[in-house]
Design goal:
Layout (H helix, E strand, L loop, with lengths): L1 H15 L29 E3 L10 H7 L8 E5 L2 E4 L2 E3 L6 E5 L5 E5 L16 E3 L4 E4 L2 E4 L10 E3 L4 E4 L2 E3 L5 E3 L5 E5 L2 E4 L4 E3 L2 E5 L2 E4 L3 E6 L9 E4 L2 E4 L6 E4 L7 E5 L18 H6 L1 E5 L16 E2 L2 H4 L4 H4 L25 H8 L7 E2 L8 E12 L2 E10 L6 E7 L13 H9 L3 E5 L11 H15 L1 H4 L1 E11 L1 H11 L3 H4 L13 E4 L14 H7 L7 H6 L13 E5 L9 H10 L4 E5 L10 E2 L2 H15 L3
Parallel strand pairs: 1-2, 2-5, 3-6, 4-7, 5-8, 6-9, 7-10, 8-11, 9-12, 10-13, 11-14, 12-15, 13-16, 14-17, 15-18, 16-19, 17-20, 18-21, 19-22, 20-23, 23-24, 24-25, 29-30, 29-31, 31-32, 32-33, 33-34
Antiparallel strand pairs: 26-35, 27-28, 28-30
Length: about 625
């Protein structure tokens, strides 16, 4: 009977545990599970609670129950408490998030140290992480052995590890961030220690972290292998020193070829002017790479640093973006297609900056802003797709009153596949909605977050979402079109024309992603083409240059699709041929297949003409007239 009960509980887990937030309504009354009966079988979210109100009382029991090489991610919710456990997460444990409530009340602790039973440094850990693709949030990991020599709190050697809002407490050797093939990200963390308290061979980025030196000593002791490009990189961090501390080095090389860089880091007066120590080895001075950029505070004595350290120039600094630091031979996408190390939104393409650039050559232009409109319903910030902790949103604009269902238009913003925002399409969406077209502006994943074909999957899901919510917005689901500008125009054409399974993405929505018409405003139709000038930004989205990834460049080109889905198309273009590369050949194909198309070119215009008057209103007119023509009964 026990095994039957446990089987039932597994089935219950598979259908019940879906809530993305750690709260009381996640599981109202989780029943304890038998860790021995379920060893290596659990595939779904579980709760750990010391008081017995979870599925397991200890984190160790939960680890034993998790199936190795999970087919999809799961979350271990750890309720508040002090968990005195010495834990090892083995290599086959992957795709798990360990989520506490806060580092102040969710604490993992132990007290081993190197001279205890002659165990040595590397057996003193509180938590050893050997598995890959793991995330830890809102936890404290500590070693409470005290001032007794080496005593490790975190021993991390897995790859694609993320620690967010975690505290690492200890003294000497608090954190062993190691593994020559290990990539680790620490965001908004607190790290304290005495001697060499961040040490090891990993490629690790520390973002917005607070670092406390508790003694006169060394913060880092990297042992980066010679063949590894990056070691420890600290960005936007803050270093502090405990009262009574007077002499702190940024680092010393545990091994030759150590690499450590501090970028935009606040440094207290306790940081010694020379900054770095050679550990008594002159050879290390010739092999290490110790660097800084933008250091500030009383300890940022750039001119006094040891001569064998580096001050990064602008060109060198560009090499320290997370996508380059964490690049590898394997794909960097997680289960949901997102980059495992997250992303920073690129806002370089926006209305104000674009106008400032274009007004120099076109002094008559006026940027078009959103206006308050009477007679429109604004449905803002609706979630159309969940990707783990990431939610993609859509805004829908509809007339207040309509006697019949209206055609719908999904609008895709531009920005070189890496920047931009759906807000750029809002003025045009509102104007079209006033003319009887229900419009939706959509957020999708850009290249800093997820590379091709993630954006295609997102936009197709938005189309399906709009169709199943058609009644809610008064849309005729059989009359939905798609439009886009610049990179958004390319995406609109690609989404509207492709029907290949690999472009559809996973979905649970029972609706087609097909559209009835496409509007492309200055979006290319072929990446590798005599008129095309696409280079770096296309490479960032497609995961390589044309020479490296020719098949991807062609798969992402509407002109080169093997089995295109032809629908009526409107091309609205600026004066620059590079932004409609492949258009003329595509029109030939449309004509040959008896499919309607139109071309309108605005002479002497900047590329993003749709953002400005005097072209905004004529563009809206062209779009409205085209949609009325091709979506009529």
């Amino acid at each position: 009977m026990k095994s039957i009960r446990n089987l039932f509980l597994i089935l219950l887990l598979s259908v019940s545990f879906h809530h993305p937030i750690f709260s009381q309504d996640f599981v109202s009354d989780p029943q304890p599970l038998d860790s021995e009966e379920l060893k290596g079988k659990i595939e779904h979210d579980i709760v750990v609670s010391k008081d017995g109100t979870g599925h397991f009382k200890t984190i160790g029991e939960a680890l034993d129950a998790i199936r190795v090489y999970l087919p999809k991610p799961l979350t271990v919710y750890i309720k508040p408490g002090v968990y005195k456990e010495k834990l090892t997460i083995q290599g086959p444990v992957t795709n798990v998030t360990f989520l506490g409530e806060s580092p102040e009340n969710t604490i993992i602790t132990y007290d081993d140290f190197a001279s205890k039973d002659n165990m040595g440094t590397f057996e003193t850990y509180t938590l050893k992480v050997l598995g890959n693709s793991l995330t830890f949030k809102n936890l404290t990991i500590q070693n409470t052995a005290g001032q007794v020599g080496q005593a490790v709190a975190l021993h991390a050697e897995g790859d694609r590890l993320v620690f967010e809002n975690c505290h690492f407490l200890g003294n000497q050797d608090t954190m062993f961030a190691s593994g020559e093939n290990s990539r680790q990200l620490y965001k908004n963390c607190y790290i304290e220690g005495t001697v060499d308290f961040i040490f090891g061979s990993a490629t690790a980025v520390f973002e917005n972290c607070e670092i406390l030196a508790k003694s006169n000593s060394y913060i880092t002791a990297a042992s980066t292998p010679e063949w590894v490009s990056y070691g420890y990189v600290f960005k936007d961090c803050k270093i502090k020193a405990e009262e009574g501390v007077t002499e702190v080095y940024l680092g010393r090389p545990w091994r030759d070829f150590a690499k450590t860089v501090f970028i935009n880091t606040e440094m207290p007066s306790e940081i010694l002017p020379e900054g770095w120590h050679n550990w008594g080895r002159e050879n290390a001075e010739r092999t290490v790479f110790y660097g800084e950029s933008g250091s500030y505070g009383p300890g940022a004595n750039v001119e006094s640093r040891v001569e064998w350290s580096h001050q990064l120039g602008e060109a060198e600094l560009k090499k320290y973006s997370n996508d380059l630091i964490f690049s590898g031979s394997n794909r960097d996408a997680d289960y949901h297609g997102n980059r495992w190390f997250g992303y920073q939104k690129d806002s370089s393409f926006n209305l104000i900056d674009a106008w400032k650039k274009d007004v120099k050559n076109f002094p008559q232009i006026k940027p078009v802003y959103k206006k308050e409109e009477v007679g429109l319903i604004e449905n803002l910030g609706l979630v159309y797709k969940n990707l783990g902790s990431r939610a993609l949103k859509i805004d829908v604009f509809q007339p207040v009153e309509s006697n019949s269902k209206l055609p719908g238009l999904l609008m895709i913003h531009g920005g070189g596949w890496k920047s931009g925002d759906k807000v750029l399409q809002v003025p045009m969406a509102m104007e079209l909605a006033k003319r009887g077209i229900v419009t939706a502006v959509v957020e999708y994943r850009l290249s800093p977050e997820a590379q091709y074909p993630a954006a295609i999957h997102d936009i197709k899901e938005a189309i399906r979402w709009l169709k199943i919510n058609a009644d809610r917005f008064g849309v005729d689901s059989s009359k939905i079109a798609i439009s886009g500008s610049s990179a958004g125009g390319h995406l609109a054409a690609l989404v509207g024309m492709t029907k290949a399974p690999e472009q559809e993405g996973e979905t649970k929505i029972e609706a087609s992603s097909n559209v009835k018409a496409i509007i492309d405003m200055d979006g290319i139709l072929a990446f590798h083409h005599p008129e095309s000038a696409e280079g770096q930004v296309a490479s960032e989205w497609l995961g390589g240059t044309y020479e490296q990834k020719p098949e991807k460049w062609d798969l992402a080109s509407p002109l080169y699709l093997n089995e295109p889905h032809f629908v009526p198309m409107l091309f609205i273009n600026s004066q620059y041929p590079r932004f409609h590369a492949g258009r003329d050949e595509l029109i030939e194909k449309l004509t040959k297949n008896g499919v309607y198309s139109e071309v309108h070119t605005f002479p002497e215009t900047p590329h993003p003409f749709w953002l400005y008057e005097p072209w905004f209103e004529p563009t809206v007119n062209l779009m409205a007239d085209f949609l009325t023509k091709v979506l009529k009964d």
